[in-house]
Amino acid sequence: MTSAAKLENAESLLDRALEVLTNGSQIDVRNLVRSLYPAEAAHILEALDPERRAKLWSMIPPGVIGQILVEVNVEVGAALLKITDRKDLIAATESMGADGMVDLLHVLPEPLLSQVMESIGVHNRNRIEKALSYGEHTAGGIMSDDVLTIRADVTLDVVSRYLRLRGNIPANTDSLIVVDRKEHFQGVLPLSQLLSHDPHAKVAAVMDTRIAGIPYRLPSREVAGMFERRKLLSAPVLADDGRVVGRVTVEDVIGLIRDEADHSLMSMAGLSEEQDMFAPVVSSAKRRALWLGVNLLTAFLAASVIDLFEDAIQQIVALAVLMPIVASMGGIAGSQTLTLVVRGLALRQVSGSNAGLLLWKEISVGLLNGLLWAGVVAVVAGMWFHRPDIGILLGVAMLINLVCAALSGVAIPVLLDKMGIDPALAGGVLLTTVTDVVGFMAFLGLATLFLL
After folding, report:
1. What is the CATH topology of the domain spanning 149-269?
2. What is the per-residue pLDDT across 350-360, written as a single tens digit (0 to 9) for each?
3. Which CA distances in Å does 362 have to 72, 369, 418?
4. Residue of 411, 397, 410, 404 lying closest to 442 (CA atoms)
5. CB 67 within 8 A of CB 33
6. How many Å apart are CA 308 and CA 305, to the nearest integer?
7. pLDDT tens for residues 281-328?
8. Cα–Cα distances in Å, from 356 out to 407, 424, 431?
9. What parts of the sequence cross the membrane (predicted)?
10. Which residues sit opposite 138 in a β-bridge?
C-alpha cells in the first residue's frame, strides 16, 4: 500500500469516528470500538477533542485499555488515566504480556504504579522489574524477553518437532537463536533454512554465524540504524558476558523511527511530540510563550543592528525596502543546510571525520547560489530604484550572507550535538539570529561605507 493510500485510510477512519461520535448511538460507538486495532484507537483518541475523547474512551473494553495507553502520547495518556477506573486498569494488566506491561508502567504515575505491581504475580513482577532495570532508550529497554533458543548440536528434525510440541512461536519470529548450554549466543537459524534443508542436518551446519548480537546498552537510536542498514527483522540482545537476554524486532524499531521523526519535526518549532493537540488553551499558550520569548530576544538583537545604521536608512530609504531580502534569503539557505545536517546527525551520517568535508561542500553551494542570486537581485534592485550602486551592494551582501548561512547551517547543529543539546530544538533559532544579524550588518554596513 502506498503512503498516499495509508494516509487516506487514516483520514477516512478519523472521519468515520467523528461522524459516529457526533451523530451515532451508543451501539454505533461500541461497534466502532470493536472494529479498531489498539494503534488505530490510539490514533483516533489523539485526534479528538476532550469531550469526544472521553465518550470514545468510556466504550473501550478494560482488556484493551492497557494496549491503547502504551500507543498514545504522554499527555493524552495522562488525560485518559484521569478518567480511567483503577480497577479497570489493574484488570487490563492481567491480559498483557510482560513487554506490554513494561511499556505501560513507563506511563503510569507512582501511586498507580505501586498498585499495579502489587496486583501481578511474583514471577511476572520479577520479569518486569528486571526489564525496568534497563535504560528506557537502550536495546535492553525496547527488547522483548520472549525468546526462542535452540542448541547447535541437535538436528533440524528435532527443532521442528520441538516447535510442533510448543504449539506457537513469538510474534515476528524470522529465525531461531542458537545458544550453548550457558545461553551464550552462537548464531541464528533462519526459518527458511529450517524448512529447506535436510531434516537430519545439524543446526551447526546450517546456522548463520554472521549475525551479530546487540549489546543491551546500545542506544535505541543506533539499534534502529542497525536494523535499517542490515535489513534485519529481528536480532538477539546480549548481556556483557554474551548471554542472550532478549531480542529486538522490526516492530519495536518502527516505533522508534516514528518517534524520532515526530521529535525532529516538533522540536524545530519548539514543541514536544508528547503534547496533546487538544490540550487546554492556557497550558498550550504557556508552553509556547517561552519559545516565543526566546525568538523575541533574537528579534531585538537583529533590530539593534538595524538601529546602528539609522542615519543611513533615513538618508537612503531604499535600504529599508531592500534589507529584508538579504536576511530572508540567508534564512532560507541556512535552513536548507541545517535540515540536511540535523537529518545526518540523527542517522549518524555526520561525524567529526566528515564534518569538515560537508562544511566545505555547503560553503561551495552557498557561494554558487550566492553568485547566481546576487547577480539577479543586483540587476532588479538597480532597475527598481535606478541606483546600480545599491543593486551591487545588495548583491554583495546577499553573497556574504548565503556563505555565512551555509557555514552556520553546518557548524551550529554539529556544535550543539557535541554539547549534548538537541540541534533540532535550538538550531533554528540560532541560525535565524545569525543570518538576520549578518544580513543586516553586511548590507547596511556596506551602504554606510560606500554610499554615504
Report:
1. CBS-domain (3.10.580)
2. 877 788 888 99
3. 39, 10, 20
4. 397
5. no
6. 5
7. 777 677 677 767 777 888 888 888 888 888 888 888 888 888 889 999
8. 11, 20, 19
9. 289-309, 316-343, 363-385, 392-416, 428-451
10. 219
